[in-house]
Amino acid sequence: MLLPARIAWLPFSLVPLALVLTFACPPWNLLADDPENSSDGRSEQVEELDLIASRFTQTIRPFLEGHCQDCHGEEVQEAKLDLLPYSTWESLETFHQTWEEIVHRVEAGEMPPADAEQPSDQERSEVIRAIREARSELALRNAGDPGPVITRRLSHAEYNYTIRDLTGVDLRPTSEFPVDPANEAGFDNTGESLAMSPALMQKYLAAARAVAEHLVLKPDGFDFADHPVATDTDRDKYAVRRIVDFYQRQPTDLAGYFHACWEVRVATAVADPRESASAAGDVAAGDVADGDERLDRLAADKRLSPNYLRLIWQMLHSPQPPSGPLAAVQQAWIGLPDDPAESTAARQVCESVRDRVQVLRRRLEPTFPNLQLEGGHLGSQQFVLWKNDQYAAHRRRFVPETVASILPDADEAQEFPELVAPAEGESRAEFDESLIRFCDLFPDAFYVSERGRDYVGKRRDQQEKGRLLSAGFHSMMGYYRDDGPLYDLILDDQGRAEIDRLWQELDFITAAPLRQYVGFVWFERTDSRYLRDEVFDFARAEDKSVTTEPMIRRLAAEYRAKAVRNGGSEEVLAAIDLYFDRINDQVRWVEQARLAAEPHHLRALVDFADRAYRRPLTSGESDELLAFYRSLRDDDGLTHEEAIQDAVVSILMSPWFWYRVDLVPTADERRPLTDFELANRLSYFLWSSMPDRELRDLAAAGRLRDPDVLVAQARRMLQSEASEALAIEFAGNWLDFRRFEQHNSVDRERYPQFTDSLRQAMFEEPVRFFGDLVRRDGSVLEFLEAEHTFVNAELAAHYGLEPLADPAGESTEGWQRVDVADRQRGGLLPMAVFQTANSPGLRTSPVKRGYWVARRLLGERIPPPPPDVPELPADEQDLGPLTLAAALAKHRDHAACAGCHERFDSLGLALENFDPIGQWRTTDLGSNPIDARADFPGGVTGDGIDGLRRYLIEHRQQDFVDHLSRQLLSYGLGRNLILSDESLLDELRSQWQQDGYRFSSLVAAIITSPQFLEKRGRPTP
Predict the structure, then answer these.
(1) 140 CB-contact burial (10 Å; exposed 0-12 / middle 13-18 / buried 19+)
(2) Interval 101-132: pLDDT, tens
C-alpha cells in the first residue's frame, strides 16, 4: 500500500537535525587545539613560528618573486596557478599540497621553465631546504591532529549499503540520485562534498518511503522483500518464493548420494585392500561404523543429507533381492569402477541410475479417482484437497491395487524389465516387498512445488507450470503443502523447524486461508452453483463476515446437509467435514496470530531504530517512537501496517540515520571517539555501511578501543564479502572506474563486441582483483607486478584467453583467477576497463592513458591543459600514415604543452598495443605497425606493457606506495589530508615497508592513529 501523503516525522528527529546542521560548518583554526599548553609551551610555539616566518621572508618569498611570479602572478597564471595567496608563511600549511608540488617541480628542474632565467644551484638548494624544513616543523607541531572532519550526510553509496544491511535487501534507493561530488583526493565520503539541500532532502524522503513499501509483517517482527509489497499478489510472491527457494536448496539429487557412497567405498578399499570393492553383501560391523563416520564427513563436505546418505548406504550394502528395481540399483552401483581416478565416469553412471530410478518411480506412482457428488463440482476445494491428501500420503508407498503388474509377456516388459512381476508364490512376495522398500526409499517426489488444475485428470508432469505451491484449484487461490518425503528423509531438525516456520508465515503474511475460503464461497455460487439454493443466501463472498467462525460453521452444516440429501458417500462427507474444520482452524490461527504479533512488531520497530541510528536508543527515544506509532493509529486512523510503515519512514528521515552523527564534535577540546563512534568510523571506512552485530557488541562491551581488538576486527572485516564495498568505493574512485558501468563513449558500430555484459565484466575485473588481494592480505605491489587477473567467460574471450574450465574439465561461465603472464595481462595496467575508459572511442589516447598512470597510480599533480591546445583527430584512421606517437611528438612542439606531456605521454605510448576497448593488437586502425617503445621520465627507456611495468617497479615504486597510502588515509579519515598528517605518513611508510606492503598493515596503521581514534571540537569563540 502507498504511505500517507503527509511527511511522517518523529518528534525526536527535529532536535538532532538542528544539532547536526549547527556543526556542519567549515574547518576551524588548527592552531588552538591544546588547552593544556603552559605559557612556556606557548612561548616555544611563538619562537618556532617566528623562525618559520623569518625563513619564509628571507629565503622562500624572494625566490618566488624573482623566479616564479612572472608566470604565476596577477596578470599571468600558467597552469592556472596564482602565487599571490602564497606570499605568507601560513600558506605553507593552508596550501600544503601545492607547496609539495612546488618543491617537487623546483627540485626536478622543471620550474622555472627552461626558457626562463634560472636560479643558481645554491639558490635552488636553499629554497628547497627552507620549504621542507618549514613544512616539517609545521607538520610536527600539530602531529596527530584529528583534523577538520566535517559532520556530513551519508553518501549515496553509503546510504544504499546501509539500507541493504539494515533491511537485508539490496534496494539501492538512491540509484537515480545525482552523482555525489568528490573532494580533492577524488572521494565522495567527505564533509566538503556531502551537503544537504531541500531538493535532496525531498529525494531522501521519497527513498525512505520506497524502502518502507518493501516492509512485510511477520509473526515475530518484520522483514523487507526485494520488491514493493502493496497488494496480495506482492505478499504471495514474497512468501511463496521463500518456500520454493528453500526447497530448491535441498540436496535431493540421487546421483550425489550414489556417488558419495562410491567415494567411501573406493576410499575404504584403498585404505584396506582386503575390503572387496566389488561385493555388495553384508559387511562387518566395524566396517559399517567406519563407513558411517566417513559418510557423515562426506555429507558435510558435499552438503548432502547425512540421514539420507546413510539410508542409501545401508540399501546398497543390504542383501540383494532376487529381482526388482532395488536389485538393479545395487548391481549398477557394484559395477562402478574401483579406481578413485575414474570419478567422472562413476558420476556419469550414478546420474544414469538416478534417471532410471525416476522413470521407474513414475511408473509406480499410484492413481486416485476424483470424488463426485451430485450437484457438486469436481473442482470444489474439498474434493481437490482430498485428492491432494491422497497423493501426499502415498509419496513413499507402493499401492499394488492402484498399479497394474507387468507380466513377462506384456508390452511394457521390455521398457520396464525391473518391474516384471514373477509368478505367484514366495518369489512374488519377495518382489512385492522389494517394491515397498524401493518406493519407501525413493519417493515419487520429495516435494511438489508446482501443481496445475489437478481435478481434470492430467498427469502431474503434463500440467501447466508456474502455479507455485498451488493447491490445484480452478479459478481460486489456495496453497497446499506437499513435502513429506523431504521432511522425513532429507531435513534435519533445524531444516524441519525452518520449513514449518516458512509455511506458517505464508498463511500469516498472505492471509491465504481467509482468501481461499472467500474464493470457495464465490466458486460454489458461480462455477459450481452448489450454493444457489435459497438456504445458502446468507453466505456471500463480498460479505466481510463470511470468514467468521459462526458463518463458517453455519455454512458447513448446510453444505453437509445438502450433500447427504444428494446421496454423498461417507468418503465425500468426510472430505466435506475435514475441509470446513481445517479451513476454520486456519482462519482462526491467522486472526489470532496477527493480533498477537503486534507487540512483536513494535519491539522490532525499536530494534530497527536502534540499528538504524548505529547506537543504543535511550529509553526516552524508545518511548517517543512508540508514542508516535500510537498517534498514527489513534489520531490519524492508520492501520497497524500503515503506522509501522510510517514510523519506519520517520526513522529513515532522522539525521541520526542519514547523517554521520558520530562525527559531530561535542566538546571544545580534542577527545577520543567513544566505542560506538569508533565502530561507525571503522565500518564506514572498510564497508561503507553500518556496523554489524559483532562490532556493536564489542562497542557495547567497551572493548573496541583495545588496539589488538580493533586490528583483529579490521582484519575480519577485510576478509568479509562486505569488503567488496572498499573495492568499489575506494579503489573505484582511486583508480577512476567507479562509474564505468555507465560508460558510453565506445563506438558500438566500430566495436559491436562491446556489449553491456562485457562492459560489466570490465568493471568487475579490478573489483575482484582488489577484493582478492585484500581478503588474502597480499602485497599492494601486486597491483603493478601481478601475473594473474580475474575473468569470466566473456572477458576471457575478449582477451583471447583459453575458455574457462572447472576442475572437472567442464566449461564454465563463472569468474576465475587465471595466470596470464604470457598474454600481456596481469595486474592493473592492462585491464580493459582502464584502457577503454581512457580512450575517446574511435582511437586510443596515450595522453589520457598516460595521465591516468601518472595521476592515479603515481599521484602526480598535473594542471589542466590550456584552452588553445590543438585537438588530435577523433578517429585513428584519420591519422593516415602518421602514427599516434608521431602525432603526439608534433603536439608536444606546442610550448604550452611540452612540460606536462613529457611527464606522461610516454607512459601512455607504452600501452599502444591495447586498442580502444583493451584488446591486444599489433597494428593500429590505420594499419600502421604498433611502436610501443617509450622514453620514460628520468631518461629510462622501455618497450610496451612489460617495459612500463619494469619502469614503475624499478623507478617509481615508492611514488606508487606513497600515493596509495595517502589515498587510503584520506578515504579512511573522510577528509582532505592536512600538513600535520605528514608525520603519520612517514610512520606509515616505514611500517608498511617492513611488513612487505601487506594491505592489512596499512589499514591497521591508519585505524590505530590518533587521527582516526580521536575527534576535535570547535574552539569557543
Answers:
(1) middle
(2) 787 777 767 778 777 778 887 878 877 887 77
